[in-house]
Amino acid sequence: MQPRVTAVLVARNGAEYLPRTLASIEAQLRRPDEVLVVDSGSTDASASLLAGTGSVITTPGRASFGGAVDHALRMGEPQQREDEWVWLLGHDNAPEPGALSALLGAVEVAPSVAIAGPKLMRWDDPTIIAAFGETVTTLGRSVQLVTDELDQAQYDVQSDYLAVAAGGMLVRRSVWTALGGFDPGLSSADAALDFSVRARLAGYRVVGVPAARVASAGPPEVFGRRSLSAGAQNRIRRFAQLHRRLVWAPLAAVPLHWLSLLPLAIARSIGHIVAKRPGSVPGELAAAIAAAFDGGVAPARRRIRHTRSLWPAIAPLRMSGAEVRERRAQERAAAVIAVSGLRERPGFFASGGGWMVLIAAVLGMIAFGRFVGVASLAGGGLAPLSSTVEGLWSTIGYGWHDIGGGFVGASDPFAAVLAVLGSLTFWAPSQSIVLLYLAALPLAALAAWWCAAAFSRRGWAPTFAAIAWAIAPPFLTSLAGGHLGAVIAHILLPTLVLALFRASRSWAMAGVAALLFAAVCASAPILAAPVVLLWFAWMVARPRAIPRLLGVPLLTVALALPLVIDQVQRGTVLALLAEPGVPVLREAPSGWQLALGSAGDQLAGWEQLLASLGLAPAMAPIVLIVLLAPLAVLALLALFLPGTVRSVPALAIAFLGFVTAVAATHIEVTLVGSQATPVWPGAALSLYWLGLIGGAVVALETLATRAAIPAWIAGAALLAVAAPLVVASASGSIAVRESSGRLLPAFVTAEASTRPDLGTLALSAQGDGGLAVDLHRGEGTTLNEQSTLAATDATADESELRLATLAGNLASRSGFDIAAELDDLQIGFVILTPAADSIEASATAQRAAESLDGNRLLTPVGDTAQGFLWAYEGLADGQAPTGPGPLETQWGTTVLIGQGVVLLVTILLAIPTERRRRVRTASTAKRRDSEASVAPADDGPPDDAAGDAIPSIESGERTEVTRDE
């Protein structure tokens, strides 16, 4: 007598698949004796399609697949036969005609078999195995033994499995009833796995039947859904794993597993970030919380308690750690083989990139070689850093600032950049700035070459970009003026562009882009608006990459938010654009000077050079126009050559940079004494220069073999443009100079070494006849202690009025109690800095000096490099005015923790977790060289297969090795 078969077809929003599935059931060679059709809460046309099959069973609510099967069996024939089998099918499981016959044939010859599973094939490709056989690792993670492989009968020998999938499963009805069906706590993922394991523990066999083939449209998690994100799938699978862990574990281990749920979720979340799966983090945490309050664990444990002791019997069917590692290695190897379409890129040395970096290094040593061996740099916008790493990191976040009279407020984000930079030379933090000056030009050349090479197939374009970027007039002018933030932004801008480009396909590059984005905006706040605009435009151009690109500015927001809040509360929003560092008084260049790439008012040093040669300085604009003409022609030529569309973004960047530079000259928010000074436009001009070079790169790439002569002409002209600035830097006629690292006279520094809160009052005569006053503590106000909150504050608070009153009475004879004020403020020294070059300033300085000399409380110490010094020897013991540090207030602690968490997540995201090397010879280089257009280098396959090209030393045949992250 043939066994009875009851097919249970469960549908939920499966109208797209039901016609094929219903037809496949009707076409079976061995047709089921009964077909129970279940509609589990469909909202599409599934109900009408099922109505044609006869009576349709409707579940109360949206029951799970297992719940729908249970409901159907209860509603069906109550009498159970000894040899009755249940065939489980979903709306997206279309069996081949011989599927049921093959399944019955397998169970009839083996009475110990209680569950038989078919080979699930891809719905859209019947030659690909979607899933066949399941198991678990020794740690309990479910593993599909076969997924997405071409069916070549390679798995037709093995039959015994730990588990099989639910779709197409044939199960003895008596076993289904005895085991209670699928666990109600597992709505989709691992439900069939858990049921199969319980059947195994009850002494039954589970087999796979390769001859039975059933089409499947997707894993059980997506049953009844149109789509499901990777994060949601991870949540469902992780919850299923945790549920099984709590159900299968011995009773004594359950409390330990329960207590470990949240710590493990946090640790795994960090692992997801490192592995470039940040979208899985919310699901990971949600799964842990749901598992912690899972009410289905206790009933499930009761169902399995009688057979839990038989676990050793199924140990051979689990996957060992060695097998897991081997499987992962095979998957990585398959992924490497699958990657194709790698484009040819120029070699670093063979294309001349190495030579350009070397030339830039030589020019850098010519310009700044005199700084070799010096302790630190000062002058212009520069000052030494704190002498210890602890001092560097104590100035970040939100807390007390010992500037002027002192105040509590947010630190500049640039303080974090300086803390990182200074920590690189932790033994002498100021040495990092010296090393940066010595390496600035080659670093800029390398960054530009690397960026241009990603968009090029030939060597001339990136080679030209390297030298043009390294000797850019805005860059050299920023170096000469000590505008450290603009220097750092210039070096990082090409790398930021490249990272943003690749971030559309790589989570690692998104993390790198976030770090660079924050560093650029912190170093040059004037660039924040254009960089944000470029980021937004790239998201619009790559909508599918929005999940990766959306988080790029988060670190920037975290670092800047406290300062934004302070400036908004003060009503000085534009002050957020102020340049960090030592405030410097300067004249704003005109629009035509900015167009020529000159951030200062001396036209890149050409006016002084022509004057020294006996020529009219008025010729400088004409000379610069002639020398810059080749670069301008190349940039504009790109609009009229094939591939015009690729030059438009570059020239748009140039326009954006120029507009930003013009706007910077009209924003006067920083105060130097009583005078306002405009924002330094050098960083914005670097963006302008980047766009021009980008357009030139497109033109040179399109010119192909005809690019050599234009590249040589434009490169030589740019070297001539940079010559005056290089000569001025080499001769020492720039604002930046070597420094011993002392901010105050040696006498003051010696006293401050034992009294860090000792105050020094600095008086500076102004050109308008006034007197500027500043108060330094300890060894002086270092570069990392500077604050744009102080530099942009146009109002005088109580502490500043107090200092002004003290300075006024020191600079003139009065009956004011100076001693009491000096004692209260713990001021032990007064220094009068050299007067500005004006009659009014000289007269003011003379009057102040006479008054200070005539004050019996002050003892003249003598003239120093910083000015004339007086000492107050009668200083009484006391405590200087101070305030809370970054960790001494609730808001300060919150700021540091928030910034630290965002920074840690960003760093973890940026760390490469996997490296794959691909080797490709240039066998198709000749064919590609004949192409007249340039296309951006492909940034790799989706997700995290995108990597950085590592140029190799070419000898004969060109080979490229690409390292993937």
From TrEMBL:
Quote the Pfam families the UniProt record gives.
Glyco_tranf_2_3
Q: Which residues form a coiled coil?
A: none
Q: Where is the region Disordered?
A: 919-965
Alphabetical UniProt keywords: Membrane, Transmembrane, Transmembrane helix
**Keyword DNA-binding in annotation:** no
Membrane spanning segments where? 246-267, 355-383, 403-427, 434-455, 484-501, 507-538, 618-641, 648-667, 679-700, 712-736, 891-911
Top-rank taxon of the source lineage equals: Bacteria
| Entry annotated with the keyword Membrane | yes
| PANTHER family tied to this protein | GLYCOSYLTRANSFERASE, SLR2126 PROTEIN
Q: What is this protein called?
A: GT2 family glycosyltransferase
